[in-house]
Amino acid sequence: MEGSRCCNVVLVLCFVFAAIVSLSMAHNHNPVVAIRRPHGKKIKPHGCVAYNPIDRCWRCDRHWAKNRKRLANCAKGFGHGTYGGKKGKIYVVTDSSDENVICPKPGTLRHAVLQPEPLWIIFGNNMNIRLTQELIFMSDKTIDGRGFDVHVSGGAGFMLQFVHNVIIHGLHMYDIVEGSGGMIRSKHDHVGIRGRSDGDAISIFRSSQVWVDHCSFASSYDGLIDIVAASTNITISNCHFVKHDKVRLNNFSHNVWLFLCDLTSIKRKGFFFFFFFFGKCHTIGTKF
Q1: Do 212 and 239 form a contact (C-beta atoms < 8 A)?
Q2: Stated pTM of the model
Q3: What are the DSSP calls for 63-119, one per residue?
Q4: Beta strand pairing status for 141-144 and 164-169?
Q5: Nearest alpha carbon to residue 287 among 258, 255, 249
Q6: How many whole angstroms separate alpha carbon 47 and alpha carbon 139?
Q7: What is the SS3 assignment for 252?
Q8: Over the stretch 163-190, which tens digit does the pLDDT of each residue have?
């Protein structure tokens, strides 16, 4: 009898504690447990701080800007081995316009991603790119936003369809809307009619070896990142997702890996595959 009474008291205390924690989290939009903490902090003599294995791979190199392609050796998880445009030349984007989606202007991001050869794409200055239609990639490309403040906002998003070996690093993508569709160049040698785009920041459709790292996403018409149609070997790492209710949808895709992604302030919907603990995903390999 005495033992039963003690058990009841313990249960009541547990319920009270759980209720207090839930209430405090509900009223705190940025709870302490959702703050990203350093993992494996390593301070170099010249003051560099690298918080995780991906950053330690390149960030503390003083001459990283002269050795950008070192980043291609840094992917972890299922996207390990994705080298993007490492085997190609450097392409510098100098023009933020996107006026012609059939014959893209040289120097624009659209012109760069449609080239048939491998390319390591960088930027010549800070820029805000408003895509008039979805940006369709070809394989073996790296978009490297390091060194400048590069925003893709107010227009359509990225479409990775039937491609492989793509790295997207260091971009800010937000306020993404549907593209109206129409005649759009989808390859360097092909123009065709496309329907309306979904309004995802990044849509990965039946593609493989894709690595998205150190990007921020917010407020897309549909999803922030959609990974669908048997896409495989994908890593999403060190990314920040806010102001949205659909972060990542996996539909019949497998080998998708999230690493140190901040999902703070995301509204949580039941049928999407979120992998997080109190607003933050950890080192998790997920198979579907």
Answers
A1: yes
A2: 0.74
A3: TGGGSGGGGGG---GGGTT--TTTTSEEEEE-B-----SSSPPTTBHHHHHT-SS-E
A4: parallel
A5: 255
A6: 37
A7: coil
A8: 999 999 999 999 999 888 789 998 888 8
